[in-house]
Specification:
Helix content: 25-40%
Bound molecules: coenzyme A
Number of helices: 3
Radius of gyration: 15 Å
Shape: globular
Strand content: 35-45%
CATH class: Alpha Beta
Order of helices and strands: HEEEHEHEE
CATH superfamily: Gcn5-related N-acetyltransferase (GNAT)
Largest sheet: 6 strands, mixed
Structural class: alpha+beta
Length: 143
């Protein structure tokens, strides 16, 4: 992910928290920590929320010690419900690098549809990468 290199120090994380709070105040984003045994083990959040077209995008990461247990699928499911039931949004996007099987597993388990391939859509380790765009519409969500 493009933000990893810029997230190495406490100051970097403080800047992230500050920008997340700004996004939250302007209703353009919303970040949640995920806790296991009262310790933060990952994050899931909304970015690029557009309240006019009622669209948002979910992003996520988990500490490697907590993968393989379904934690992120459950967290994303809760966030999807929150988007449709509480934020009155209509469309949720998830973009995954074509080689990121673990990440692709999340929208697939939650019945997102594959909407297309975004060519050279991000830079990972200095290289352009294609991203798969998964989307879910409110009318497709059965709860
Ligand atoms: C993407 C990422 C969060 C996925 O983590 P994950 O642990 O595979 O996802 P989940 O927590 O939903 O767990 C799913 C795994 O647990 C298993 N599992 C066990 N119990 C489960 C349950 N009750 N429900 C769902 N899955 C369960 C699943 O079979 C799956 O394992 P598999 O891939 O071997 O089949 C993680 O790999 C990560 O943080 N990667 C780096 C950051 C990143 O790439 N972010 C995405 C950017 S788009």
């Amino acid at each position: 992910m493009p933000w990893v290199d810029g997230t190495r120090t406490v100051t970097d994380t403080e800047k992230f928290i500050k920008s997340s709070k700004k996004q939250q105040r302007s209703k353009k984003g919303l970040q949640f920590t995920i806790k296991s045994k009262n310790k933060i083990c990952g994050m899931v959040g909304l970015v690029s929320t557009d309240n006019q077209t009622k669209k948002t995008e979910i992003g996520y990461w988990l500490s490697s010690r907590h993968t393989g247990k379904g934690i992120m699928t459950k967290s994303c499911k809760a966030l999807v419900e929150y988007c449709f039931n509480n934020l009155n949004l209509n469309k949720i996007l998830i973009r995954c690098a074509t080689g990121n099987k673990a990440s692709i597993g999340i929208p697939e388990r939650l019945n997102f549809r594959k909407e297309g391939l975004l060519r050279d859509d991000t830079v990972i380790n200095g290289k352009f990468e294609d991203l798969i765009l998964f989307t879910l519409l409110r009318k497709e969500w059965d709860g």
